[in-house]
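re: the backbone from monday

yeah here it is again, tokenized this time
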């Protein structure tokens, strides 16, 4: 499998599908499903291309956030809250998840069901199951998709989704679908493609299973004092609200934090010149749905906006996207200077931010872990 085109043009995919049929039989999948669905799957070059694609540039917070928390999504979220209020209120009582959060996930995942993906799920999963990079994982997902088809008599052509096999209103992978999807409309069938009630109920059930705490918000935008030392920053530094209050972290209306028996971490997705957020326990729950701080902040703030809140107090600054090769060079330089950030990979992760903070402190810079121009200058590196 030297290339996707060579693989697609040879016998490897056909041989792999034959092996997958044996696996399906061992897992109790019927011959009808194997013959009419699994044996008919097609190799999709585009899927492998997308799976191996690493963007040349990383996305800035302003760009990411601005494309997701839009006036249109806020307006649509409020509209759908009115339409589905009875169901959403029931879900809040049953699962402890307020309706605005369920709508925020729905809005970010599929634009409130208006776009659920268009790629044949079985083709995508079979293609990935026959590729060495994550064959075991996608074989499991493929088998589960076939079991769902068998259980609910889905037609293969109706099973469409993302290039990686995520499906329906909530973009669940097949194993998540099998374990957490719920029959919300009571018709005896869990159909995440065609039933809004099933989709919203499944989202609430999944969030509860991830540990959502009822009667707690996701987090909040905060104001940090000018003399803040950035000693505590990011997911590794979880402190009580009383501690954050003692550090003069304040609400956006400049009043002191309300003290409750809750833990929080401070996030600066655009550095010290951008908005600051305290993320509570439910912020971590959102991160278990999607391991992106940008995503979690977007879900939380979109939920707040749907519920009537105002825009961010501090607007996310327009910042250039980072070329990943530049970040790799920066990481290598930090390692060379004794600030261990791990193997250079072009991704500004937790280790890189911690190492960057240490370097910034050593140079008397604002230690926000964000690689601004002054930091690149101090490292003796060009920013682009």
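seq for it, each position gets an aa:
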């Amino acid at each position: 499998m030297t290339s996707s085109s060579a693989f697609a043009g040879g016998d490897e995919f056909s041989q792999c599908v034959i092996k997958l049929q044996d696996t399906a039989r061992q897992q109790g999948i019927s011959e009808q499903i194997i013959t009419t669905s699994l044996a008919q799957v097609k190799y999709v070059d585009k899927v492998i291309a997308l799976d191996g694609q690493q963007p040349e540039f990383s996305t800035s917070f302003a760009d990411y956030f601005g494309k997701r928390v839009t006036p249109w999504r806020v307006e649509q979220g409020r509209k759908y809250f009115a339409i589905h209020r009875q169901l959403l209120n029931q879900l809040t009582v049953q699962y402890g998840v307020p309706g605005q959060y369920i709508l925020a996930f729905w809005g970010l995942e599929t634009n409130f069901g208006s776009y659920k993906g268009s790629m044949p799920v079985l083709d995508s999963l079979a293609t990935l199951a026959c590729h060495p990079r994550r064959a075991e994982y996608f074989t499991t997902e493929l088998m589960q998709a076939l079991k769902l088809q068998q259980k609910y008599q889905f037609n293969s052509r109706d099973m469409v989704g993302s290039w990686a096999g995520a499906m329906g209103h909530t973009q669940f992978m097949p194993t998540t679908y099998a374990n957490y999807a719920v029959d919300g409309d009571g018709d005896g069938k869990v159909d995440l493609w065609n039933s809004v009630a099933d989709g919203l109920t499944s989202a609430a059930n999944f969030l509860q299973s991830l540990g959502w705490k009822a009667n707690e918000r996701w987090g909040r935008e905060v104001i940090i004092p000018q003399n803040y030392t950035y000693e505590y920053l990011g997911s590794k530094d979880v402190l009580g609200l009383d501690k954050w209050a003692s550090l003069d972290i304040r609400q956006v209306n400049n009043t002191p934090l309300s003290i409750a028996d809750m833990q929080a971490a401070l996030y600066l997705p655009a550095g010290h010149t951008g908005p600051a957020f305290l993320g509570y326990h439910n912020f971590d729950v959102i991160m278990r749905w999607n391991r992106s701080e940008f995503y979690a902040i977007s879900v939380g703030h979109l939920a707040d906006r749907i519920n009537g809140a105002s825009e961010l107090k501090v607007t996310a600054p327009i910042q250039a996207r980072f070329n990943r090769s530049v970040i790799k060079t920066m990481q290598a330089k930090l390692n060379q200077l004794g600030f261990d950030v791990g193997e250079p990979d072009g991704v500004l992760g937790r280790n890189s931010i911690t190492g960057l903070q240490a370097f910034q402190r050593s140079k008397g810079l604002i230690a926000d872990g964000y690689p601004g121009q002054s930091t690149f200058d101090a490292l003796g590196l060009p920013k682009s």
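The longest helix spans residues 135-152. Confidence is low (pLDDT under 50) at residues 1-6.
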